[in-house]
Amino acid sequence: MIRILLISLVLLSSLAWARVEFEITPFSVQDFRDAQRLAELCAQDAASFWCLQQGAELTLLTTKGYDAVFNAAGEVVALFAKGLQRGQDFGGNYNLDANENLIPMRAALPGLALLINEEYLVPEQATGAWQRLDENTYRGVFSYRLGDYLVEREVRVYANRIAMDLSLTVSYQGEEPREAPVQLAVAVPGIAREAAPVIKIGQAGFFSLNPLPQPVANPDYISLQSNDRNTGYALILRPALGLGGELAALSLPPARIAMIRTLPPEAEAARFELQFYGGPNELIRFHQEGLLALNGLFRPNLMGQLSLGIVWVLEAIYRVVGGWGLSIIVLTLLFRVLVWPLITVQTRSMVGMQQLQPKLQALQKKYKDNREKLTQETMKLYQEAGVNPAAGCLPIFLQMPIFIILWRVFTNFEFGEGFLWIPDLGLPDPFFILPILYVGVMVGQAYIMAKDNPQSFRMQLMISLVFVFFIFAFPAGVTLYWVVSMLVQVGQHYLIQRSVAAQAAAT
């Protein structure tokens, strides 16, 4: 068994240490794994925007929530979202046609492209640079031309947030005066490989689902979502706070979304201030990104509402104790207090069943040829001992929804800080201490529960060791919750065993 544990450590060490760094690196089209496939696609006169940018200089920016590839004009040409395994390192395995790439490879324009009268022009004379403002923020500043228009773009990307900020100024610099207004649009070309994504436009008090392709004034947001079932991914454009009055949201066929504004003939420039979210279509992420209040964007079910209740309690604890690690521990202890009576009933039933095993085996041996008599005597034995076999199952079913809710909360919550030796509670423990503690607690629990039954002990031990392959990839916050929860349960089981044994000795 020790050998199995050591093999598990070796196999999973690369996963635990392969944590993505918040950094930028030069990139090129040839660095994509399916670059050859893209070349073949463009050889067929495909309409993909990539066919116009084969030799473009690119920049890869890696974060905990996604890895984004920008071109020299600051447009998003690829966006690789990370689901449950935040902070994962793709290891250079970027496929443009993968489900995780939220910018469709075959799209006619990249993400956050500027359209002039709904037409995409390839940026010319593009210049730009990225600057690290602090340990959690990168700023990219770009300048380029689209015909007679000068575009100045600023993008801010954050280490612990999925949403990025976009500022864009468009100035007319043509020699001839303009006689007609021009429609400017910041557009998103689709979402991943979804042929028919859900489009929503939200305004104060209501939202529209799959709206007609006409401008909607004063929007709170416009979104592309994989579906309307609260799963998959989402791309969301929203105006900066208080700046939506000059914008309109527009759904463009076949599956594009855009924020638009009009540049009148007498005006020389127009400006956009937007926020762009590209990531999981998930309740807790939306809550932390400040998107959940957007009308109609996400409609949580009962489990979702309970999850928000858990988040409210967790955040309330944080305001008191001042650290997410301590908040997790306190919330776990509160939960264990809540389910203490249920666990007590379950454990007493299990202990009682264990004590009856010799008598049950004797009955099975005595009535091995009389199934009906065996059933009658078994039920009689249960009644005399005051044991109900079903009593151990009901508490499990009652606890399961709470366990699922806590799992969802801790898995998706962005803690953004460490605890003790753990550098980041949202990422796996790089030193393996929490997973090893978890395995130790599981072994201790198996021993206490089945020390008089070697076969049962070995079976539970093997289950614990198999679970090692999963626990190493869990975010440290999840593992911390499990370790504390299991420690309390082991202690509770030990106390109940002693109590039952004392009662048996007294009688």
**Proportion in β-strands:** 15-25%
Helix-strand topology string: HEHEEEEEEEEEEEEEEEEEEHHHHHHHH
CATH topology tier name of the largest domain: Beta-galactosidase, Chain A, domain 5
Architecture per CATH nomenclature, i.e. the level-2 architecture of the largest domain: Distorted Sandwich
Look at the helices and sheets and give the structural class.
alpha+beta
Overall domain count: 2
Q: How many β-strands, per DSSP?
A: 19
The overall pLDDT, averaged over residues, is 82
- The top-level CATH class of the largest domain is Mainly Beta
Which helices and strands occur, and which strands form pairs?
Layout: H1 2-17, E1 23-27, H2 35-43, E2 58-62, E3 66-70, E4 76-81, E5 113-116, E6 119-120, E7 124-134, E8 137-146, E9 149-158, E10 164-172, E11 182-188, E12 198-203, E13 206-209, E14 216-217, E15 221-225, E16 233-239, E17 248-252, E18 256-263, E19 269-280, H3 283-288, H4 302-321, H5 324-366, H6 371-385, H7 394-412, H8 433-450, H9 454-471, H10 476-506
Antiparallel strand pairs: 1-2, 2-3, 3-4, 5-6, 5-11, 7-8, 8-9, 9-10, 10-19, 11-18, 12-13, 12-15, 14-17, 15-16, 16-19, 17-18
